[in-house]
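Progress note, sequence design subtask.
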């Protein structure tokens, strides 16, 4: 490897800047639009929960199933995206996801029954699942090694920006409708506009996919070597030894075939050990309960006595904290490494969740007459924001970076698909169980999330590899 490829040698020396770093950033940002849609679609439902409950006259459990329906599609999309990407390319896969996002947004905005809304949520979820796999894989494959961690962080940055924008759009639409989620705007109820506005970024994602190049690794795998060289020149600079880079990639791929589920088998417990590590990272990322904040935050704060208008404000402020934490992670992920960031985050999350569990134990009353002492209410708010901050500056970014880097080339696409599918399944479990856990004992729910944050510490120390500064071809 020459030039930029060698710039990230262990020891943290300063990398030479590629000739076309600006172009690489544009390509990465375009691919990360899938992450923006992922965040937007995942969180936008938060502003429509009360209206959907009233419109279709459903209870908490049925409502949770509709909210979680998207996650079924996510798991399916994530599980199949790797194979689709290996067959037709990363760009075509992005374009399919963009179409699914667009169709889902229109269908979700115009449902005629609860099952209809759930079906469109599944369609959108399939697009999210595909984007969650293709984004990190594509970004890892087009990024110069010295900048790969920071560029891979674009995926999570886009997700958190999507979450924040969805809350801002919800707030804006709610104000236009005079604070009524079911208030009429141009013939539709406010909540329908909340879900339908996603058409705009979905179409933009599709359009941007037509102006970015295909992954050089995919091009080489299908014999389009000259085109792959052009892409490598674009993303690694004019001084790079193109023939050498192509030879490196070909050497890494020479004994490979299209990755399949069967390639992931062979360890003591079915999967190869590295695949189990990927699954573990994905599952722990969700079992700490992060998406409770983004799916149910308005309902959560109202359940401990905070008025509805303030609950919308806190939903937005946690989204801003999420962005701040993600920026911190993007700055440090290539400087101090993936494992140290993850360990810092696990410790911070465990402390924050433990404080939240303590504060929620002081909840009193039932129904619309719920209160908390002022001191505990303040602790709960601070702990929730602290939890989001520690998650964002660590696991939110590190997991996506590691999943894009840690697998050997011969199994990367398929392994990423399985790990991402596991993430969506864990997300689904947390999403559908929270309403029941909250009704049973809100403090107890947060004790469970605290336990998972603590368990993630020995998991990182014992099993997670450090990938900082390594080329993808070195992942054996």
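Output:
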């Amino acid at each position: 490897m020459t030039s930029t490829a060698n710039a990230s040698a262990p020891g943290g020396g300063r990398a030479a800047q590629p000739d076309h770093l600006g172009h690489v950033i544009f390509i990465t940002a375009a691919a990360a639009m899938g992450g923006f849609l992922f965040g937007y679609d995942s969180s936008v439902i938060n502003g429509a929960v009360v209206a959907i409950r009233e419109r279709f006259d459903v209870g908490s459990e049925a409502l949770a199933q509709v909210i979680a329906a998207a996650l079924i599609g996510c798991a399916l999309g994530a599980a199949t995206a790797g194979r689709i990407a290996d067959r037709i390319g990363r760009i075509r896969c992005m374009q399919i996801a963009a179409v699914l996002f667009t169709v889902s947004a229109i269908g979700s905005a115009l449902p005629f029954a609860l099952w209809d809304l759930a079906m469109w949520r599944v369609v959108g979820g399939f697009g999210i699942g595909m984007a969650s796999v293709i984004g990190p894989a594509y970004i890892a494959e087009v990024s110069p090694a010295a900048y790969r961690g920071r560029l891979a962080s674009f995926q999570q940055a886009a997700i958190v920006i999507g979450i924040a924008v969805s809350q801002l759009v919800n707030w804006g639409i709610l104000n236009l409708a005079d604070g009524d989620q079911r208030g009429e705007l141009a013939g539709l109820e406010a909540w329908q506009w909340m879900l339908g506005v996603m058409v705009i970024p979905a179409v933009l994602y599709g359009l941007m996919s037509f102006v970015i190049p295909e992954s050089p690794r995919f091009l080489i795998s299908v014999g389009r070597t000259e085109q792959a060289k052009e892409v490598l020149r674009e993303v690694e600079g004019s001084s790079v030894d193109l023939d050498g880079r192509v030879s490196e990639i070909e050497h890494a791929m020479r004994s490979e075939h299209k990755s399949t589920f069967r390639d992931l088998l062979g360890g003591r417990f079915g999967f190869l050990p590295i695949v189990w590590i990927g699954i573990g990272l994905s599952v722990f990322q969700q079992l700490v309960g992060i998406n409770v904040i983004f799916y149910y935050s308005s309902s959560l704060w109202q359940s401990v006595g905070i008025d509805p208008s303030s609950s919308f404000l806190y939903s937005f402020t946690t989204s801003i904290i999420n962005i701040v934490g993600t920026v911190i992670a993007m700055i440090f992920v290539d400087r101090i490494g993936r494992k140290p960031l993850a360990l810092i985050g696990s410790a911070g999350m465990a402390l924050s969740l433990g404080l939240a569990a303590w504060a929620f134990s002081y909840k009193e009353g039932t129904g619309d007459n719920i209160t908390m002492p002022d001191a505990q209410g303040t602790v709960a708010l601070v702990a929730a924001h602290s939890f989001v901050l520690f998650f964002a500056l660590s696991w939110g970014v590190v997991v996506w970076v590691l999943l894009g880097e840690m697998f050997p080339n011969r199994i990367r696409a398929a392994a990423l698909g399985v790990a991402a599918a596991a993430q969506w399944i864990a997300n689904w479990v947390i999403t559908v169980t929270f309403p029941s856990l909250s009704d049973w004992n809100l403090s107890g729910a947060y004790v469970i999330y605290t336990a998972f944050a603590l368990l993630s510490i020995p998991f990182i120390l014992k099993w997670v590899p450090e990938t900082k500064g390594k080329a993808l071809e070195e992942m054996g």
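The chain is about 70% helix and 0% strand. Work on this subtask will continue into the next period as scheduled.
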